[in-house]
Amino acid sequence: MSLKKFIHTDLFYLESGKKLPALEIAYHTFGNRSTYKNNIVWVCHALTANSDVIDWWPGLFGEKAIFNPEEHFIICANIVGSAYGTTNPLSIDAKNDEPYYLSFPEITIRDMVKAHQLLAAHLKIDQIDVLIGGSLGGQQALEWAVSEPEKINQLIILASNARHSPWGIAFNESQRLCLTADPTFYKSQPNGGNAGLKAARSLALLSYRSYKTYAVTQSEDDLQKKGSFNAASYQNYQGQKLVNRFNAYSYWYLTKAMDSHNVARNRVSLENALGRVKARSLIIAIASDILFPPEEQRFLSRHIPDASFAEVESLFGHDGFLIETEALSKIIKSFLIQQVTEKLTTPFRTA
């Protein structure tokens, strides 16, 4: 399915009080709505993903997957600030006909959700049968379920949290220090900060994986080796891979947005905010996740009314929510086929 665009021509007011003169939202849809419009699956994507969910989440989405275009109407919208078609720092500022770069206003998770809500209204979607997201995508999905509890029927959160942690913010700030250490970041050019972006991605990978991941996937057989190590090559490769498809300015703003995540803001407390969720909810943790550790998902499952909890064993740390699709499919299928009045009482464990 090809990329689609929705243009919101009115002012788009941000949580900060600043505004964008208009908003362009890139999105994909797959499949068709059922007669009763009860097959809508909305996906909120993570930090550097795009709206083509079948491309980046294979095994969970696609033909013969648990979420497939034959049975479901699948929607995924590119988030505000991202590099894949939605208004972002490289978009043209109407004030001077130049890209925004660092004059782009700071955005929050709530701003991203507000954009999703505008697109949903444009598509005449009043009810979402399944709202799903992992990591930063999970933060969006949770915020949406809190802000419009009547519109979400079933909520699936993977490897995410109710409020971004000091640990997560520290990782993001360290990545932004990489960006700003590259002097080209301040030169307002499309490839500005690319060397910093490469370093930032290399640092981020250490939070996405773990000691054990690298021990298994980047081990060395040559006992005499003194350089050109697999782990070093891997870091360089992954850093450059992101540079080839993203930009440093979007990365800067999106990590800031992730830091802003806090469903308790203007809602008394985390517990109060989570108590607003009315959707049947499934919270999934990755046991080896050091960036969003399982204790954060357990907190969600304790305070979202009647939420179900599942934990998946994985070698791949935080990235397990993208990789362990076979185990995730089993858990999600079990959750979806249960009667609304049932509740999962035993956490899943999948090796």
From TrEMBL:
It comes from Mucilaginibacter arboris. Pathway: Amino-acid biosynthesis; L-methionine biosynthesis via de novo pathway; O-acetyl-L-homoserine from L-homoserine: step 1/1. It is found in: Cytoplasm. The keyword Transcription does not apply. Transmembrane segments: none annotated. PANTHER family: HOMOSERINE O-ACETYLTRANSFERASE (PTHR32268). The active site is at residues 135, 289, 318. One of its GO terms (molecular function) is homoserine O-acetyltransferase activity. Homodimer. The keyword Transferase applies. Substrate binds at residues 201, 319. This is Homoserine O-acetyltransferase. GO terms for cellular component: cytoplasm. GO terms for biological process: homoserine metabolic process; methionine biosynthetic process. HAMAP family: MetX_acyltransf (MF_00296). Belongs to the AB hydrolase superfamily. MetX family. Residues 41-323 form the AB hydrolase-1 domain. Transfers an acetyl group from acetyl-CoA to L-homoserine, forming acetyl-L-homoserine. It catalyses: L-homoserine + acetyl-CoA = O-acetyl-L-homoserine + CoA.
